[in-house]
Amino acid sequence: MPIAAAIPAIAGIGSSLIGGIAGAANRRPPSLSGMQSGALDQLLKSLMPQATGTPTIDPIQQALMYGQNAQSLTGANNAVTHALVSRGLGHSGILGAGLMQNENQSQANQNNINLGLQQQAVQQRQLNIQDILGLLNVNNTPGQSGFGGFMAGLAPVAAYSIQNALNGSYKGGGGAPVGSGSNGDWGQ
Description:
Blueprint: H1 3-25, H2 34-51, H3 59-85, H4 93-136, H5 146-172
């Protein structure tokens, strides 16, 4: 390939690389100042653990609600025991059945407590994610990587340069394209 034919290709590659570098430097959304970027990084580091991973039940709430359930079970057992003992049925199977029924109800209450607390944890996690997105003023769309920016800057310039190089090689054997005005006749 003659040097004259290689110059447009080299110029096209060079301008394509410049476009790619410009695209990589152009962060989307627009760049934040250093102070904004640092504050945003700190904010995300503190909020992300609350918004990622498996939602967990608050152990303090769980302990308090279990305590209330245990008190209810004790009260229900005392009520059954006193009612049956006062009638002379303190050693009967009826008392055992009543106490067993109370225990089953207490277990069902604990299951409902755990289910409610787990649902609360899931809702809190979703709220944390929405808070983070709101503070960042973004929607849930992934950003553009540095390589993606490079390719976005590179692509249009490279396509134009390659098309011009191909036009030149097909129509004039590497010289000036037909209709370039070399004979004073533009476009004919």
